[in-house]
Amino acid sequence: MVVDDHPMWRQGVARDLAEAGYDLVATTGEGGQAVRIAPAARPDVVVLDLQLPDISGVEVIRGLLAALPGVRVLMLSASGEEQSVLDAVKAGATGYLLKSASTEEFLEAVRRTAAGDAVFTPGLAGLVLGEYRRLAKGGGPAEDGGAPRLTERETEVLRLVAKGLSYKQIAARLTLSHRTVQNHVQNTLGKLQLHNRVELTRYAIEQGLDGP
């Protein structure tokens, strides 16, 4: 689903996606409408503009995740402002791409977002991880009492997710198939009651799993 209030931009993005073989289930220029139609359209990935005329992109992210907990949201914005990026990620966006990206970069970002990777315009990934580390240090110690038990392999995969590796890189590192890595991540998400890879990365960093 494509959500952008500029008709020409929206049509261009929709055309690029269709030509790349994606099923376009809906397009809209309003955040409120996106949230309303999402349960019926059931998109796997939402390409969302940060600046919308009715409600903010952050509110749209929250509304989409409440309506469809498994949906992945790729922000497509003209703004690379740090606060905009962090607000979107904290709200649950899976990735953040600047509108200055090429068509090839955009389609690759959509493909990786659909696969569950956290995708950021170069330079923004470090910003996001840095913020998570700051939040993790500011938080209290993790409670052990009710902590879910992960298998050794799940913990190993989680450690590599925290280091920022893609599923493909993790598969190569651990000599596993891409599908097996995805399954481990999905199982871990279920056990930890998290929604996406961004939340998983934050959890891993809070647990100190991003160290050497």
From TrEMBL:
Residues 1-114 form the Response regulatory domain. The keyword Phosphoprotein applies. InterPro entries: CheY-like_superfamily, NreC/VraR/RcsB-like_REC, Sig_transdc_resp-reg_C-effctor, Sig_transdc_resp-reg_receiver, Tscrpt_reg_LuxR_C, WalR-like. Residues 143-208 form the HTH luxR-type domain. The modification 4-aspartylphosphate is found at residue 49. Pfam families: GerE (PF00196), Response_reg (PF00072). Keywords: DNA-binding, Phosphoprotein. CDD domains: LuxR_C_like, REC_NarL-like. It comes from the Bacteria. This is Response regulator transcription factor. It comes from Phytohabitans maris.
